Amino acid sequence: MSNSSSTDLDQLRTRLEKLESKIYGVHENCECHEDHSQSRNTLTDRSGQSDVSAVAAESILSRGRASVDSTRSDNGFLACIRNGWARTNNMSVFDHGSTAVAFSNIRGGSESFSIVGGHGAPGLIVCGTGQVVGSSDKYMSVANEASWRSIVSQGISGSQLTLFGCKVAAGTDGANFLQRVANALRKPVGGWTGDVWCNPSQIWGTGSFIVVQPGSFVEPVEAPELFVAEKEMTVFHLPTPDGVEEIPATDIRAVNFTPVGNLPHSPTAFSARGGQALSIVELVDFAHPLVTNDKPGAILVGILTITYEVKNEERMVSFRVLAYSLLQDIRFPNTYYNASSKLIEFLQKRR
What we know:
2 domains, 6-stranded mixed beta sheet
């Protein structure tokens, strides 16, 4: 690479980091929650970005155009990002109920970059049905490319598109998806490999922000591994109104999973008992809950129910499985648990 190209790329990185801080409120190396900290990273991986000029980066820093899934019945993430971006002086914000309306909203303006906001998962973003994947005209993935390719190919405002939802860019599914969108759009497309979150004062993402160029190849970047299941569980921790209940792992009797929505490759329902049930529970970090009022932009994959025994009485507790790797306690909705990639693999093998 020439000295001039190297200088342009360095300038681009600096400007994109400023943009990210300005639009998403990202702060590097910030401990974000009691009980379980995680970093809110800046653009730590910039695969496929080398062809973007510093001139393009300069234009990105001016005004943006965003369209947000108009669903009001999700977990509050959509209203949060809509309000957050609306408060930003350099953002024009619109609502959409389908992929076609989303791209119509971000087309034809004079803004320098565009964003589509919705709930996501690796290689997928919802465009009209909130946390639950609906009909093919209301989400985007490689599986339904025929439904959105001609819409996307009509273009957008500005020089780059960001698909803002949890883990949209993660892994092979995410890299392939961003590549297909970039090829159809003929412009760079970016997304996060980790979860994206929102609170009234901040919109932020985790993992790496990947930008893919049209016609290029990008190496997949996996979602950050926030829990590694290495030890056998001896105690199952559950929050209660009075604290935490500690249940011997041997008292776990069964695990049931029920898929939700119309995922293009939906995992199948399953039941497990005894040792197999315990081996599934061990893939979730129940010892370190993430307690927060922040809202994640993750699709609802299904419901995981754990049956356990206390004094010869069977009890059940259920969790929403979000984007395959984050569990939300249904009884205490502000309590989340990170799952090992082995749980993701287990669920996705059952698709």
